[in-house]
Amino acid sequence: MAIQRTFSILKPDATERNITGAINALIEKAGLRIVAQKRIHMTRGQAETFYAVHKERPFFGELVDFMISGPVVVQVLEGENAIAKYRDVMGATDPSKAADGTIRKAHAKSIGENSVHGSDAPETAAIEIAQFFAGNEIVG
Ligand code: CMP
Q1: For residues 41, 43, 49 and 50, what is the CA-based torsion angle, rounded to 10 degrees?
Q2: Could you tell me the distance, in angstroms and rounded to a whole number, from the CA of residue 112 to the centre of ligand 1?
Q3: Dist CA 17 CA 138 (whole Å)
Q4: Quick check: pTM over 0.70?
Q5: Which residues line the annotated binding site for ATP?
Q6: How far apart are the C-alpha atoms of 101 and 10, rounded to whole Å?
Q7: Which position among 61, 64, 116, 118 has the lowest Cβ density within 10 Å, counted as fewest Cβ atoms?
Q8: Is 46 helix (H, G, I), strand (E, B) or coil?
């Protein structure tokens, strides 16, 4: 299996509760390397662009409002099969359905305030990484 990169966000409910280190520990325990990371406060425009695929969904406004409600930590994670591996580590979008040992089972508050985002495919990972990081900010 090839080494891949995926894009991750530690969401405002995680920064608000000061649990970014606890989440990073689960990421690293799974064998993923944090090869880029920065704490930012997303603008409304950045959040709308990032979640444009969900524009027609009824929760879009709520999702954007939440993502700009406080700081987030954006990351690039690297490792074998990183995209699928991180989705396994995150657990189901709805924390009530997330498996034991996953980030969302341990930390997410609700389907909206679900602590983390991870890319769903190589194409989206490349687009999401490029939205927030220049090539020279990623150090593998
Ligand atoms: P994420 O992986 O960041 O991708 C899209 C996000 O939309 C998802 O995580 C959830 O946080 C959010 N989301 C999905 N379904 C709902 C919903 N029914 N209500 C509010 N937010 C949702």
Answers
A1: 10
A2: 5
A3: 27
A4: yes
A5: 11, 59, 87, 93, 104, 114
A6: 17
A7: 61
A8: helix
Contact 81, 4 (CB under 8 A): yes
Domain limits of the chain? Answer: 1-133
Q: Which two tokens stand for residue 8?
A: 């991750």
Q: What is the C-alpha to C-alpha distance for residues 77 and 36, in angstroms, rounded to an integer?
A: 7
CB 116 within 8 A of CB 10: yes
Count other Cβ atoms within 10 Å, centred on residue 93: 14
Cα 100 to chain centroid, rounded: 19
CATH of span 1-133: 3.30.70.141
Q: What is the structure's pLDDT at 93?
A: 97
Residue 54: active-site member: no
What count of residues does the chain have? 140
pLDDT at residue 1, rounded to an integer: 72
